[in-house]
């Protein structure tokens, strides 16, 4: 593993245009293209592509195309989870999705962080970092949910459609809005 890839996975500042990382993103992009081109009748083909693309894909996982991710190998999805159409997962660091998690259409998971300092962000060799996202078991994310870097969502939480999750959400709550906030316990 190269130095920039190691920095990326550790959540440190790294150079995203490093040749190794470009090659990794191209690999993931090509696998996503193959996955997205499959027919609804090609369950075995979809499963094989996901096993090649993702770090871990549990039993009975369903992902409906189109699906996009940056790297794939940093994404783990637990058993019996469901991801609806149009999911985008920017996985520059580990992203963990628990078991039996239901995800509505239009999910966006962003681990990437860009420096607030313009000189670092726009330098000839710009740097960025990332923070992991963890989604617990038995979570339900409504359609159009956006989860920002570093967020953990506790088990059995429900996140309302269109919510922008900017901070950790505890287990067994309903949370909604922009920014997402807890409105009741379950």
Radius of gyration of CA atoms, rounded to a whole number? 16 Å
Task: Give the strand order, joined by hyphens, for the main sheet.
Answer: 2-5-8-13-16-18-19
Number of structural units classed as domains:
1
CATH architecture: 3 Solenoid
* Number of helical regions: 4
CATH topology: UDP N-Acetylglucosamine Acyltransferase, domain 1
Overall shape: globular
What is the CATH class name?
Answer: Mainly Beta
* Model regions low in confidence, pLDDT < 50 over at least 5 residues: none
User: What is the average of the pLDDT values?
Assistant: 97
What is the SS-derived class?
Answer: alpha/beta
Fraction of residues in helix: 10-25%
> What composes the largest sheet?
7 strands, mixed
- In terms of DSSP E residues, the strand content is 25-35%
Question: Quaternary arrangement of the chains shown?
Answer: single chain
């Amino acid at each position: 593993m190269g130095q920039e890839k190691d920095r990326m996975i550790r959540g440190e500042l790294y150079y995203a245009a490093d040749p190794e990382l470009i090659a990794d993103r191209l690999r993931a992009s090509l696998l996503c293209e193959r996955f997205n081109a499959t027919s609804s009748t090609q369950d075995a083909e979809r499963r094989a592509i996901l096993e090649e693309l993702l770090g871990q894909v549990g039993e009975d996982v369903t992902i409906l195309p189109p699906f996009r991710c940056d790297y794939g190998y940093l994404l783990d999805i637990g058993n019996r989870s469901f991801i609806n159409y149009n999911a985008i997962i920017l996985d520059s660091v580990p992203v963990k999705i628990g078991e039996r998690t239901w995800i509505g259409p239009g999910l966006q998971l962003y681990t990437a962080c860009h420096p607030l300092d313009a000189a670092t962000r726009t330098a000839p060799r710009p740097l960025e970092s990332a923070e992991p996202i963890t989604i617990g078991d038995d979570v339900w994310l409504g359609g159009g949910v956006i989860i920002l870097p570093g967020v953990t969502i506790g088990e059995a939480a429900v996140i309302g459609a269109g919510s922008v999750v900017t901070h950790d959400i505890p287990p067994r709550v309903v949370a909604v809005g922009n920014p997402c906030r807890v409105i009741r316990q379950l």
